[in-house]
Amino acid sequence: MGACKALDKLADHPETLRGVYRATVRRFLTCAPWVLISFCIVAVIGPLSAIQSHSGQLDRGDLYVVLSFNPSSNFQEDLDLAGGRVLGPLRAIFSRLITVPPDGHSQLNLAGYRLLPASMLADICGVSVDLSPQTVRS
What we know:
- This protein has two domains: 2-54; 63-125, 2-Layer Sandwich (Alpha-Beta Plaits).
- The protein has helices at residues 2-12, 14-54, 75-82, 102-110, 118-125, and strands spanning 63-67, 85-88, 95-99, 114-117.
- It is of the alpha+beta class.
- A four-stranded antiparallel beta sheet has the order 2-3-1-4.
């Protein structure tokens, strides 16, 4: 009953209700930047830690996403020396999907490229690939 009486008093005095509203908004605005900052930190740290933890691992299908933050580098020459080829996109600035044998993988790592296994990206996206042997039905 006490809460109802307090609400009735607030309803009788709209200026008090405006004060409560202003105080609530003021509290939210003092808290909102911290919430926004923490969300941005989580949104950046999560993908970066996934990239760092999976970078350099071999992929079971020899498919990799190459991250190169130096678009003017000699990527195509390095890829040819490693025995790989670009699958796409051909005009991307920061990343490309490539296929490269395991020994070429280590060469590209030593050349300074970040190689992410394509299976890691498939796991993040929820794509599962059945790697069991396929049988042909007749």
